[in-house]
User: What shape does this take?
Amino acid sequence: MADAKNWLQATKDYINEIKLEMRRVSWPNRKQVENTTAVVIVSVFAFAGYFAIVDAVLSKGITGILNFFTK
Assistant: This one.
């Protein structure tokens, strides 16, 4: 029974600490969120394009090498 009370008190203390910590968090405003979201989306497409080009070049190169040695 004492363990259950200790666990319950520890859980309450933990939740209260989380609430206090969340009050200290500095949240970004809407404009900051929009800007960083745009940067992430543009970056994802840029990296996707880059990797598509690298994949195509490597694929053609490996296919050429394999064709050369299998003839």
Q: What stands out?
A: The chain has one domain: 2-70. Residues 2-70 form one domain. The mean pLDDT is 94. Residues 30-70 form the longest helix (41 residues).
